[in-house]
Write a structure and sequence with these properties.
7 strands; alpha/beta; 7-stranded mixed β-sheet; about 160 residues
Length: about 160
């Protein structure tokens, strides 16, 4: 898996102060997407064990307390990302069980594959649905268009 950007301190993508990872790879290619540079799964940087270690160090940092991890993109549930994302969310929940995980995906909860559901089992909040430009609403919190749904899964 590749990632496009990583913000060790973020206050926009989910509640509270967070660490946020934008992965590469998205097959939805929504019209009006503000993050088109993340669509190609080959773009960005390799998400290796060293980068995974950095995310965990940041989540454990007591100088800047983070509420949790946000995963966006691209699409964390893009088939090519599932192995790396599953390893990351498992590790976060094992080493930082008090942290929440938010994940944004163009796939809807009711259409997830078994492999995608395995990832979601470790996620606390899923924001699902493709961005639809005709339904865009800048007043919405944590989503770009009104068709997208925030699912509080209660895994924390």
């Amino acid at each position: 898996m590749n990632y496009h950007q990583y913000f060790p301190v973020d206050v926009v993508n989910g509640p509270g102060t967070r660490a946020t990872l934008f992965v590469s790879g998205c097959e939805h290619q929504c019209r009006g997407c503000y993050n088109q540079s993340t669509w190609n799964p080959c773009h960005g940087h390799a998400f290796d064990e060293q980068m995974q270690d950095q995310v965990l160090r940041d989540l454990k940092d007591t100088r800047i307390k983070r509420r949790g991890l946000s995963l966006s993109g691209g699409d964390p549930l893009f088939p090519g990302n599932l192995t790396a994302i599953l390893a990351l969310v498992k590790r976060v929940k094992t080493q930082c069980p008090e942290k929440d995980i938010w994940l944004w995906s163009g796939y809807r909860l009711d259409e997830l594959s078994e492999a995608q559901k395995e990832v979601i089992a470790y996620v606390d909040v899923l924001v699902d649905g493709k961005f639809e430009q005709a339904l865009a609403d800048p007043s919405l919190e944590f989503r770009g268009s009104s068709n997208q749904v925030i699912h509080y899964l209660g895994n924390i």
